[in-house]
Design brief:
Strand order of the largest sheet: 1-2-3-4
Radius of gyration: 15 Å
Structural class: alpha/beta
Low-confidence stretches: none
Largest sheet: 4 strands, parallel
Number of helices: 7
Amino acid sequence: MRVWKFGDDIDTDAIIPPGRFLTIYDPAELAKHAFEGTRDEFAKEVQEGDVVVAGSNFGCGSSREHAPLALLGAGVKVVVAKSFARIFYRNAVNTGLLPLVSAGAEGIRDGDTVTVDLAGGYIEANGRRLPIEPVPGFMKEIVDAGGLVAYAKGWMR
């Protein structure tokens, strides 16, 4: 999985620009504008399975679900950060995007290849194993189901 590296305090407006895209709810359409004006090559070059890695406070700003939906539409299934804004963290889980917390995220470079081992509790990058915080089972079930709505539909059967 290729890494797209970002710094601290990446807000939701940097992930998906506000305004003209707020009426779009299709993840594939939102993905065409992911990181527009911040890192324009992202939408053109991101591939299925790539990973976004960031510093502290990833996803700060507004509480729109458009930001995690844009990443999912781009093929990103996992975001690793030193810390997340709480509302983005919950929106990510609720839409099916897995947020992973790792203090070692700052040691991962743009373009690196990483492997995520949830069972082992680490990310492997540059020959090093960087610990990740444990993912609660219920949260993993929600993400695996494709988000909270899909999880609830399955639970209600």
